[in-house]
Every structure is written in structure tokens, then in C-alpha cells.
Amino acid sequence: MLTLDKIYHAAFVLKDVARKTDLIYAQNMKSDAELYLKTENLQITGSFKLRGAYYKISQLTEEQRRAGIVACSAGNHAQGVALAATRMGIKSVVCMPDGAPISKVEATKAFGAEVCLHGATYDDAFAKACQLRDETGATFIHPFDDDEVIAGQGTIGLEILEQLRDVEAVVVPIGGGGLISGLAYAIKSLAPHVKVYGVQAERAAGMFESHKEGHLITLDKANTFADGIAVKHPGDITFNITENYVDDIVTVTEDEIAAAILMLMEKQKLVTEGAGAVSVAAVMFNKLPVAGKKTVCVLSGGNIDVTILSRVITRGLITSGRNATLQIALEDKPGQLLGVSRIISECGANVVSVYHEHSDPNMAIASCFLKVGIETRDFEQIETIKQRLAENGFKLV
User: Fold this and answer.
1) Residue 106: how many CA atoms within 13 Å on its side-chain side?
2) Fewer CB atoms inside 10 Å of the end CB: C or N, the chain?
3) Is pLDDT of 333 > 80?
4) Which residues have a Cβ under 8 Å from the Cβ of 281 and sit 6 or more positions away?
């Protein structure tokens, strides 16, 4: 069973392995809350997962070590298992879904694990890992539903209480629930007045729905770019701990996550993956009652696939009113584009793309649609531009 002593023991085991990550005061991110960032995205493997994986593997018997270990992961747990096993001289096989980011697959191999790509989802990889466990006698290292894994993650809670003694609220990403279970257990055991909130991606909200229903449920699908928390079925152990120690669970949309990633990059110069940014997204978009409170957001990981980073930034710009596309119905005659661009310029925005559409069957033959991409400061500036265009006779579609 999970105990506070076990979490303290995990902290002792991990003291020369895992970084005691910085707690950064984010002064310019939220005006109505005193916001701090627990930077687990700067952990050795780019994620908090090293803590639980290393502690679990460190507690194996000699017989279990000789038999080797097997794990399944979308990427972050994989790297933690690989690093821990290699440091202890243990053979490791990690099953990952075919669609796992290439960067995470290669990083797992670089840490010394054998990677087995199998199936389209985490659940497919899990089934393969269980098959290998049964065939080889290897020990399965669960990514979240294990007391010793949870204890390792709980060391983050101890660090937060040491780094910010008067903390009032902690906001934590949730996938299967290992991180929030250990963290909430540690914090509530030592400082029960501190609020602990969980955040899930709206499109992978297994723990949120389970909490709402009062019993564990399995989602039909978990389709979010925050792949680190794309879990259909939360853990049995983690669900029970969460029900007892977590104050509330909320969800955030894909666009809100993208906006949080962008803000962390711009304001704090920190790169996070989708799963790592959901805590900040919940605070940014006022999903939690943290106004006026000393609030810690756990940035659980930074292993974002660079191939989608540009798309995430674009979505973040749109969600925060920094980028917009206007479609205008025009008479196809000289001077129209000049008139539109002059208004946009006078309002202080910047035109980045222009496209004329002449062939739409729904418009008059002598007309066209003009699509203008613009860079803006915020939504208020976008509305000002729309109003000025309308006042000058331009029809927005």
C-alpha cells in the first residue's frame, strides 16, 4: 500500500538520480493569481516519469532483475524505464504504439531499451507488453497503477512543500492518475489545507468522467495531441486515491492546451508537451478557483514532437487572438485590395497572406472572395478591424 514513509524512501533513492526541478515564479502569466511552475519538463528524461519508474525498478529482487523488465508507454514512461533499467544493468523491452512520436522512440532506444512498436493505441501496446511478460517471465513495470510507481511520483509533492511552504493550491495533469495520486497523497498527508486539482484533456477525460460517475469507466477513444495523458482507462489504485485526496478535476480543450504551450514559450521560455501544459491551460482559462492564491502548476513533461510544434503554435496564436483570417466579399475591380489593406494597416495589424477566390458558384460573376490572413495583438483588435471594414462598405463573410 502507498504510505508517506514509502514516498520519503523514494525521495532518498532518487536523490542522486532525478533532478530536484526548479519552482519558478511566473509573474507575468496570470494577473489574479500568484502562479508558480514546477518544471518537470526539465527533468533528465524530459518528464516526471523517471521518478516512478526508477523507484519501482530499484525495489525489484535479484531474481526479477535477472528476468528483465517489460513496459508499455506512449513515450515518457518508456524513457524513464529505459534509463533506470540501463543504470541498474537490467535488460528492458518497451512496447510503444506505432504512432508514438519518433523523437520519443529514438530517445527510448538511446537510453538503452529495446523498443517494440505494436498497434495503433496505448492499449494495443499494453496488450503486447502483457504477452511478452507472460512469455518471458519479465517483470511488468506499469506506467501508473502501481504503489511504488505512485510513491516515486509523490516525491514531487514533497519538493513543492519544501520549495513553497505557504502554497495554497497545486494543479496537476492527469492521464492514468499516477502523478496526481502520489502528489496529492503526499501533500494532503502533510498539508491537508492545500487544494489539489487535476486537469485532463477534454478528448481523453477518463478520470474526469469516472470522478463524475463515481466509478471507473473506460473511454471508447482518447484522441488528443496531448499523447502523454491519452489514457482510456485510469488505474484502479489511482482512482481510489484520487477520489480520497483530490479536490476537483476539470478538462481543457485542444485549443486551450495549444494556447498554454504558446504562452509558456513566449512568457517563460519553457517548452512543454501537450500533457505538460494542461495545468497552465486550466488556470489561463479560469477553469479553477485559484484567484488570489499561491498556485503551483506542474509542467509534467517537455517531450513535444517538433513535427507538430508549428501547428500547435499556430493554433495557440488563433486561440489567443494573435492570428486571424478574414473572408470578405468584394466587387472585382481595381483598388479594393488597397482599401482593405489600408484599413488593416491603420488598425495596427499586419497582413501575412492574401488569397483571391473567383470561382465560387455562390457569388456574382463580377465579384470575388478575398481571404486575408493577419497578425494581431488580441481579439479586441480583430473586432476593431471588422468594424472598420464594415463601416467602409466591405462585407465580411
Assistant:
1) 5
2) N
3) no
4) 199, 252, 256, 257, 259, 260, 287
Could you give the CA distance from residue 189 to residue 185 in angstroms, rounded to a whole number?
6
Per-residue confidence (pLDDT) for residue 305, from 0 to 100: 84
pLDDT digits (tens, 9 = 90+) for 147-201: 999 999 999 999 999 999 999 999 999 999 999 999 999 999 999 999 999 999 9
Nearest CA to 144 among 232, 49, 70, 218? Answer: 49
Q: What is the DSSP letter of 155?
A: H
Cα–Cα dist 367/358, whole Å: 7
Q: Residue 397's Cα: distance from chain center in Å?
A: 35
In 3D space, the residue among 160, 150, 309, 325 whose CA is nearest the CA of residue 242 turns out to be 150
Pairwise CA distance, residues 312 & 309, whole Å: 5
Active site residues per annotation: 49, 300
- Helix 254-268 crosses helix 306-319 at what angle (to 10 degrees)? 100
Beta strand 169-173 with 294-299: parallel, antiparallel or unpaired? parallel
Give pTM, 2 decimals.
Answer: 0.88
Question: What type of residue sits at position 280?
Answer: V
Q: Confidence class of residue 363 from pLDDT cuts 50, 70 and 90?
A: low
Query: Partners of 198 in the beta sheet?
Result: 172, 249
At 329, which helix (H) or strand (E)?
Answer: strand 323-331
Distance between CA 117 and CA 147 in Å, rounded? 27
Per-residue pLDDT of 210-264, as tens digits, reads 999 999 999 998 889 998 898 889 999 999 999 999 999 999 999 999 999 999 9
Q: What does the pLDDT look like over 117-129, one tens digit per residue?
A: 998 777 788 889 9
Pairing of strands 323-331, 395-396: antiparallel
Cell 472585382 locates to 332
| 3-state DSSP assignment of residue 374 | strand
pLDDT, residue 242, reads 97
Which amino acid is present at 118?
A: H
User: Which amino acid is it at 370?
Assistant: L
Do the beta carbons of residue 69 and residue 140 sit within 8 Å?
yes
**Alpha-helical runs (H) found in the chain:** 4-14, 49-58, 62-67, 76-87, 102-110, 122-136, 147-163, 178-190, 206-213, 236-245, 254-268, 274-284, 306-319, 336-346, 379-391
